[in-house]
Design goal:
heterodimer; A: 139 residues; mainly beta; Cathepsin D, subunit A, domain 1; 5-stranded mixed beta sheet; 4-stranded mixed beta sheet; 2 helices; B: 80 residues; alpha+beta; 3-stranded antiparallel beta sheet; 3 helices; 19% strand; globular
Chain lengths: 139, 80
Amino acid sequence: MGNLRSHSSRTGDCRPFQKGSAEGTKNGATAVMSKEWLIDTGAEVSAITKSNADNFDLTPLAATARATSTGAGLAMHSGLTMVFDVKDSTGADVTARCSLDVGVKPDDAGSEILGMDQIAHVKARVGWDPVALDGYLRQ
Amino acid sequence: MDREVDGQRMTPAQRDDLLTQKALFEDQYPNFQDSLRGKVVGFAQGRRYAGNTVHEVLDTVKREHPGSMLYFEPIGFDII
């Protein structure tokens, strides 16, 4: 059994997800939110929903009006750490933390996305079987 | 961008800076839409930046213009 699975509450969704968390601060206090990350090999940058972003004090850096083919925009911020598990060489899950700048979606549509930027940053690999609904993030 | 201001993640001044850089991007887009296809192109402080990834461009702008806003677009591809 790997550390990626289908979505915990959406049957029939054959994409890979992993339960983890987002860490940051809010009004000077530590803030931690449990999240179910979509492991998205089609995403160059990681992105969170607007409501998730509201839980943290983030620093704005950049924005684009065209992040997707549908013309959805994205604002890039610093100040968030994504937390997820990566299997080590022995097969044990090790907690990874990545604080690369992250995108904030303009609304709450879609998933919280763990993109290839953060996967690459922690030097992990992705494997996923969409039939067995099992897969891994591993070193 | 207005939603970012409404959500208090961005100040009106930062939004206005972004809109200024966006206008520059759109004005100069015909000059680089072919030559920089496949790159991430952005404007900050009135200057054009290009790189292979959003992070590459962002890191350059943060180093050269700390605190400035970057408006960017991927040319000919999507990032999410």
